Structure prediction request, 501 residues.
Amino acid sequence: MAKGQSKQVSKSQSADGSDVYEEQFIPYVNKWGRLTNLLAVALSLGPAVTLLVVFDILPPSSAIIGAFAAVAVTFGWAWVIEPLSYYPVLGIPGTYMAFLSGNISNLRLPCAAAAQEAADVETGTPQASIISTVAIAASIFVNTAMLGIGAFALVSVFQALPELWRNALESYLVPAVFGAIFAQFGRDYPKVAGIGFGIALSMTLLLELGFLAFLPSYPLYAVIIVSVFGTTLIARWMWYNDMISPPDEDDE
Amino acid sequence: MVWHELAPIAPAYMEIANSPWLWLSTVPVVLAVLLQATLFLRRAWNDGREMGLSEEKLKTGFKTGLISAIGPSVAVLAGMLALIATVGGPVAWMRLTVIGSVAFELPAAELGVSQFGYSLGDEGITETAYATAVWSMTLGGTGWLLVSAFGTRHMETFRTKISNGNEKLLPVISAAAMLGAFAYFLSGEVTAGTPETGSVAVGGLAMLALLHLADSRDIQWIREWSLGIAMFVGLLAGVAVQVTVGGWW
Prediction:
């Protein structure tokens, strides 16, 4: 009904609309976004602290540090690269929200894109950023509720399963997920995937056959470090020698 | 082997992992997520109207966000089963509502239990090893939160600085690091046994087939479901190998 009209309004006020956006909305988002994300850092310790306080279970600090170091070696890149690469699509409010709520590429980005399309706003404008903020908030309400109810229900389903199937879920879902994610990344760089797998398998066999025993404590870290950095260095060398190229160049 | 369907045969830590205390402990952080969404929503609605966006467009945006989230949420829920089976319901819920995705939380949990020489799904995982997994998921996830909390307002500057360097090399390097890391996870599974190897291989092949199908026909829902479907196909492959050839290694 008022479609033509509203378009006109947004056009005629666009100059002052971006004023509101830059001078009111963005400062508010920056202030509260930082505050809520830092609050979440503290509150996310909830389960770990509960294990300690209620159940009196605290892993030795060496295990926590070892595990954290392994996670940092594996995902440290992603901590920086992902916000940087999704930022142009998500915008400032979307970056705070998406990195607090997770599931970005499979949930937040499609929701924001669909909403911008449906509301007929031009991508990259302040109006588009407002619409995607609204859409991401809506998606957070939906998936928090659905996952909460679903998780609760699935726990009972899982506990009622016959042992063969429960055992299968415990043992084979994880390798299947790892295989699927490896394939997903490897699709763009099959040569790098092959080399990475070769390195990791050799290192794992060396570890299991005891050839890494000269290293201090349980040398799992050596396997991770050599796999990650070995693959990265070889990929870098291949890139400089024109042996691999980013996927978008192959396609078109 | 005892075959009571209702007998608690699950590892000991599972009782703790699904206890009401743990459910309770996840509530505050989930509330923080909802709080942020509510604050941003209210502000975007008010400022959006002041910017000349019609009520109608804002409603369309909100409704589209609600509806578009349903499909992917069910897909995430399917993927969540792997986490529920290994770290319990509450932690799985919290990790996938706050920060995480299955692609991060599973490896992080695996790195936690591996500090004690276990692999997810092993029998006899101790409570301490389980707690280490919870710690490594928690601390590992804070990387993204800290970068987004402190970095978002400086993103534009960051980006121009980085692209002055070698912007085309950057995605290659980060993809290679990810491939190296997941190659490590795969080799752990492959050396664990024949059924695990079957799950890895079939899960990977299923993913490739699904993504190929999604790309060639441009079907978005297949992309959303790809991890969930590949996971179940891989699971079935593992069971099939277990009951047919058993374990060669």
Notes: Residues 1-14 of chain A have pLDDT under 50 and may be disordered.
